[in-house]
Amino acid sequence: MEDCIFCKIINGDIPSYTVYEDDVVKAFLDISQVTPGHTLVIPKHHVANLFEYDDNLAKEVLSRLPKIARAIQASDPSIVGMNVMNNNGEVAYQSVFHSHWHLIPRYADDDDFS
Ligand code: 5GP
Ligand code: ZN
């Protein structure tokens, strides 16, 4: 997708800090971190949101979330929890229309951001 900022991140046209990458997904730090380590996991195949996933893409992307979550957790012993968030549609606060899964580390002493 030509005008998609996350496709540009996948292609390297926009810089990002990569947390994890393979042939199916890229995980990179969110530019505006809710908590330190806030990571976005995106499929390399452009889909706007959850409504466009087929079974295979769902299996491939979702099955990777636990190990990426564990890798983030392993990077800092003070991470004691994690919120996983996925917004679908403008009304649901989706602002970038390339599907992404927010992994938001939670720390014992962090502030409530809700
Ligand atoms: P949404 O509101 O669609 O669920 O989340 C979009 C997320 O993308 C936001 O948390 C925002 O900070 C992040 N974001 C937007 N543009 C960029 C960018 O160019 N680079 C990175 N790393 N994150 C971005
Ligand atoms: Zn895209």
TrEMBL record:
Motif extent (Histidine triad motif): 98-102
Residue ranges constituting the HIT domain according to the UniProt record: 5-113
Catalytic residues in the record: 100 (tele-amp-histidine intermediate)
Domain of life: Bacteria
GO molecular function annotations of the record: catalytic activity
Any one of the GO BP annotations: nucleotide metabolic process
Name this protein carries in UniProt: Histidine triad protein
Annotated organism of origin: Limosilactobacillus equigenerosi DSM 18793 = JCM 14505
Full protein: residues contained: 1 to 114 of 143
